[in-house]
Amino acid sequence: MKKKFTLKIYTENNIKMLNTISSIFTRKNINIESMVTSEIIEEDIIGYTIVVYENKNVVKKLLNKLEKQVKIIKVDIEENKEIEVY
Predict the structure, then answer these.
(1) Of 22, 19, 16, 15, residue with least CA distance to 7
(2) Residues 10 and 72 sit within 8 Å (Cβ to Cβ)
(3) What pTM was computed for the model?
(4) Helices (H), 1-86
């Protein structure tokens, strides 16, 4: 069952990193619902906050592929809960 996941990925800041990350999503046929990037200046690290709507196994496989192709410093995964409106 597909759920919404927020991935917070921290990598070294280099010129090709955004293209590399987005191409991995494309090859895995995963649609990016939203993406925000922000630079952490002190450590020359960039953070990506990416929201996807996918099942948990696909997200785990995606992260394994990312770790093989990109030097990842840290990854946080948050499974978003649906908000019920009454």
Answers:
(1) 22
(2) yes
(3) 0.85
(4) 17-27, 56-69
CATH of the domain at 21: 3.30.70.260
pLDDT at position 41:
72
Enter the tokens of residue 84.
Answer: 């019920």
What does the pLDDT look like over 5-43, one tens digit per residue? 999 999 998 889 999 999 999 999 999 999 999 988 777
Domain range for 52:
3-79
Is 45 inside a domain boundary?
yes
Number of domains in the chain: 1
Q: Which two tokens stand for residue 47?
A: 């953070």
pLDDT at 84 over 50: no
Q: What SS3 class is residue 59?
A: helix
Q: Say if 49 falls within a structural domain.
A: yes
